[in-house]
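Deliverable D5.2: sample structural annotation.
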Amino acid sequence: MDFIMQPWPWYVGGPLIGLIMLLLILSGKSFGFSSNFRTICSALGAGKTCEFFDFDWRTQKWNFLFLVGAVLGGFVAYHFLSNNQIPAISEQTITDLQALGFNSAGKAYAPTELFGELSFKNVIILLAGGILAGFGTRYAGGCTSGHAISGLSDFQLPSLIAVIGFFIGGLVMAHLLFPLIFG
């Protein structure tokens, strides 16, 4: 049980992801979680009112099952395998986050200042973040996992451009917007 309770090193997780991607490429499938939103909407009948959702969603049910498995796996890992583990982050990051008012940094899995108390400001931040993430995912034609793992594995130029954009957006958020919003 100790083996499962510890974080797995990159040289185990990386090759497993590579093997899965190779199997998907050889079977002619592409991976990405954001495509499941389209699949769910199509399965629920949205194709009757919107051309974008009018496709045979059954061809993507394997990807939907992968999403369900990831959600169930996360639930099992958090409730039965994590022992409330706290991610290891650097002391400098903890100091920087505490300077911005996140005193739970390094002490909790998620910042309790944002997720623990649903003030009006926190609800607006979470709602705006969700809308921007959803819009960005649709506008970029996929999410970070789809582009960075599947798209780059397929040598797709649009995925390379999207990943570069994700990286630049992350830097802008971390160094410019995050201190403005929480500082």
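Annotation notes: The first helix runs from residue 2 to 5. DSSP finds nine helices and no strands in the chain.
The annotation will be released with the project's public dataset once the embargo ends.
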